[in-house]
Amino acid sequence: MDPTLLNDTVRAMHLLGLAIGFGVAIVADVSAARLMVRPLDAREIQALHRFHRMVTLGLILFWTSGLALLWLRTGFDAAKFSPKLMTKLGVVTLLTGNAVLIGRIGLPIIDAMRGLRFGALPAAARFQVAALGALSSACWIAALALGVFSQLKTMEWSLLSEIVGLIYLVALIGACTAAMAAPLVDYVLERRSLNHWAPPLRG
Predict the structure, then answer these.
(1) Burial class (CB in 10 A: 0-12, 13-18, 19+), 74
(2) For residues 123-149, b (16+ Cβ closer than 10 Å) or e, as one string?
């Protein structure tokens, strides 16, 4: 096969894996975020499990095509690894580890909390679920940025690490804020529900 055609084919597979993983992960995060205002039903929880399997397939395609691109472009010669490439490998490795933790920790927590809003969970469980969701979004956004923006290709490690680090920092701050605010949101929604169903006072 022509080397250029082979490279383009593998790159297309790489972008497909990124598109599947990123798109489904964002949909899953939005679906899980509904827990802030109402419990998820059985159908929605089953959908989260399907989303996780689809993200896993996207990651497998992403890794397979990524390693193929790595071989085509560098021959696995570490001396040819750019700061961008090293950063991308780190991001995807973290993303893969986080996906494993979502399957082993995050989804079982959501299964166990069926019928409850997010704010009703113990603090440890809230922070775990929020952190896993935030890291997932941050990793996919970082991977997308590294794959799309050509300016990052020649950027020095010091600046590149600041950009990627900022993405993770914002995501984790958002996760901590959501985990801390959830009980207050749950209390307000519960009060509104009680007031809505309270019988009218008779004079």
Answers:
(1) middle
(2) eebbbbbbbbbbbbbbbbbbbbbbbee
User: Two tokens at 160?
Assistant: 């590149």
CA-nearest of 152, 148, 145 to 168 is 145
Rounded Cα–Cα distance for residues 202 and 180 (Å): 39
Q: How crowded is residue 69: how many other Cβ atoms within 10 Å of its Cβ?
A: 16
**Neighbouring C-beta atoms of residue 88, cutoff 10 Å:** 22
pLDDT at 40: 85
And the tokens for 152?
């990052």
Distances, alpha carbon 51 to alpha carbons 19, 63, 119, in Å: 13, 18, 23
**Angle at the Cα of 96 (from 95 to 101), degrees rounded to 5?**
95
Q: pLDDT tens, 132-170?
A: 989 988 988 888 888 777 777 778 888 888 889 999 999
User: Measured between alpha carbons, how far is 3 from 69 in angstroms, rounded to an integer?
Assistant: 11
Work out the pLDDT band at 195, boundaries 50, 70, 90: low
